[in-house]
Amino acid sequence: MKAAADRLLRGVGVSSGIAIGPAHVVDASALLAPEYAIPEAELEAEVQRFATAADKARRQVRKLKTKASGLPDSAAEEIGFLLDAHFAMLSGSRLMRGVEKRIRQDKVNAEAAVQAEITSIAQSFADMEDAYLAARIADVREVGQRLLRNLMQHKYQAFSFLPEGCIVLAEDLSPADTALMDPRRIAGFATMLGGPEGHTAIMARSLSLPAVLGTLGLLQGVQNGDTVVVDGIAGQVCVNPSPDVLDGYRRRRAELLAERAQLKSLRKLPAITRDGTSVTLNANLELPRELDGAIEVGASGVGLLRTEFLFMNREDLPDEDEQTEILTRIVTSMDGKPVTARTLDIGGEKIATALRGYFSEPTNPALGLRAIRLSLKEPKLLETQLAAMLRAGAHGNLRILLPMISSVAEVRRVREIMATVVRRLRRRGVKIAHPLPKLGIMIEIPGAALSADGLAPFCDFFAIGTNDLIQYTLAIDRGDEQVADLYDPLHPAVLRLVQFTTEAALRARIPVSICGEMAGDPRYTALLLGLGIRELSMAPNNLPLVKRRLRGLDLIEATRRARTIMDQTDRGRIAALLDDFNDAAA
Ligand code: PEP
Ligand code: MG
Asked: Cell membrane as a keyword (predicted)?
């Protein structure tokens, strides 16, 4: 049965562009549970692992229910009942007790116990020949699959077999899932969960995949093969559009592609303002395969190489040689242009399978063991990364960037570890960068921004990470669609922290750049340059847009406007002053 025509759903548009294609609904129900014995001494830990997975499942169901409340009344009620039933099954039910009992009695892993208990409950419901209970079998299985998914966190999405040009629809996709999407095969994607600045969104932008996250009611009534339009600009998903509506989307898509082609002509033009100030436009890289795109748009260098890709979608950790080889390839491809490689920023929403053992389930992952905190707690991880960076630096221009720095002590500690690694490599007679790479820090914690003048003497450069800076300043989860409207780059507190950091860097005469998503949005270019920033790093696709904007602006006027803006306390007034300035230039 086809879904209703022209069903228009709203979400958060996170990646520009329009994709049209057949739907592929990610079927999370095809998981096969592994089965293995658990030694007596580890049984309680296995029960605990199950309890953690169940906890997570309850949080997921609660979140889905909150989302469902935004649907029209009847749909909200129907889905609400269903999710209440799922929640009940996950709380002290026969299912939960049965799984724990099986782990202890049969001495098996939690996945096998869940699978066995689901089969047994489904069988007993079927035996009762009751229509109501028969209908509940599907719910029991769905809850079981959710538990399995949470237990088998490392399940990779297999996108490679999908029909070319399809649109992936899913409840949720992790950044690691998204990294597996090949933009030559997949036209775009949409999910029910996820916010505008989470790493799934950033990954979508870097792969130039049109995407809409946080889409209400996405998976209701849509089937594989239905025609779907993902409009990443308007933040809309249209299921089975009528011919007229489809024509409209096709026309808009053609216009966007034409505009993109036209922007290519900017490639050879210098990135200078109308009054002659030159600005460095760098590329952010999530994955090495974006390198060609960065070179194609004429990036001056790589302003942020997120090295998390090295750790994603695998069961083991990359060793020094493997990391060196990949980094060297990137550094050599950039042909002498700077490559700013950031040490591992795993944690928060970005968990890599191979590092699962390093984390317990934190109460608040964004404030937990993330980024440099993990690297300093597990110095072997950091030593391996630094060694690889030092070795790759021998083949070009590499800078090292540290994420989530909050204190001078952390920078000092990294410098000590780096000195040890340098000595060890020299003893081994390995060729390393000479002079040693510059060592800079991300300013993305409000406390770091406020102490930027104290941090500057210990750093060779600053890179302002506005994504996290906004999240932590305003206490808004960057990946949560429910508070996406409160995530505000123009909040005066955010702007003051950017200004304070920039001025501290200028006083200390160290370079300062912005590499958060703000840097790649031409709406903010005049303001950021007006605040004194002269280096921006962004997804390669955005670089021509920002270059076009800065080539059209007068820096003296932009500086004057930035000053007026910094005198404001009202967010609406700030937005109006900025948009008026931009409109006048258009
Ligand atoms: C940032 O926080 O702005 C940033 C660039 O880092 P990430 O998005 O990887 O956290
Ligand atoms: Mg960050």
From this structure: no
Q: Are residues 207 and 145 in the same domain?
A: no
Q: Whose CA is nearest to atom 1 of ligand 1?
A: 465
Say whether both 79 and 208 belong to one domain. no
Cβ 399 vs Cβ 338: under 8 Å? yes
Kindly tell me the number of DSSP H helices and DSSP E strands found in the chain.
21, 16
Cα distance between residue 449 and residue 504, in whole Å: 9
Tell me: do 339 and 227 sit in the same domain. Answer: no
Which residues line the pocket of ligand 1, CB cutoff 6 A? Answer: 202, 304, 306, 345, 444, 465-468, 515-516
- The response to whether 252 counts as a known ligand-binding position is no
- Check residue 353 and give its pLDDT: 58
- Residue of the nearest CA to atom 6 in ligand 1? 465
Work out the number of other CB atoms within 10 angstroms of the CB of residue 573: 15
The CA–CA distances, whole Å, from 212 to 170, 251, 296 equal 11, 20, 26
At residue 198's C-alpha, the angle toward residues 196 and 204, to 5°, is: 75
Q: Which of 444, 477, 528 to mutate to test the pocket of ligand 1 (most atoms within 8 A of CB)?
A: 444
How far is the centre of ligand 1, averaged over its atoms, from the C-alpha of 65 (Å)?
29
**Rounded distance between C-alpha atoms, residue 219 and residue 382, angstroms:** 41
511 and 545 part of one domain: yes
Q: Up-side HSE of residue 476: CA atoms within 13 Å toward CB?
A: 24
> Encoding tokens for residue 504?
């501290």
What's the rounded Cα separation, in Å, for the pair 303 and 281? 8
* Spatial CB neighbours of 363, under 8 Å, sequence gap ≥ 6: none
Tell me, yes or no, whether 141 lies in a domain.
yes
CA-only gyration radius of the chain, Å: 25
Q: Residue 383: which of 417, 411, 431, 433 has the closest Cα?
A: 417
Non-local (6+) Cβ contacts of 490 within 8 A are 571, 574, 575, 578
Among 166, 238, 459, 515, the active-site one is 515
177 and 82 part of one domain: no
Range of the domain at 479: 277-556
CA dihedral over 486, 55, 370, 168, signed as positive or negative: negative
Q: Say if CB 494 and CB 474 are below 8 A apart.
A: yes
DSSP letter at 520 equals G
State how far the alpha carbon of 298 is from the alpha carbons of 65, 306, 337, in Å: 46, 20, 11
Provide the 8-state DSSP code for 437. Answer: P
Structure tokens at 376: 């300093």
Q: How many angstroms separate the CA atoms of 324 and 391, rounded?
A: 6
CA 123/CA 185 separation, integer angstroms: 41
Strands 166-170, 339-342: pairing is unpaired
* Cα 89 to the center of its chain, rounded Å: 31
CA distance 558 to 578: 9
| Gap from CA of 403 to ligand 2 centroid (Å) | 7
Q: What is the pLDDT at residue 350? A: 61
Catalytic pick among 24, 86, 166, 199: 199
Is 313 in contact with 176 (CB distance < 8 Å)?
yes
- Domain identity same for 387 and 399: yes
Amino acid at position 371, single letter: A
Nearest-angstrom CA–CA distance, 540 and 303 = 11
Q: What are the residue ranges in the chain where pLDDT is below 50?
A: 1-2
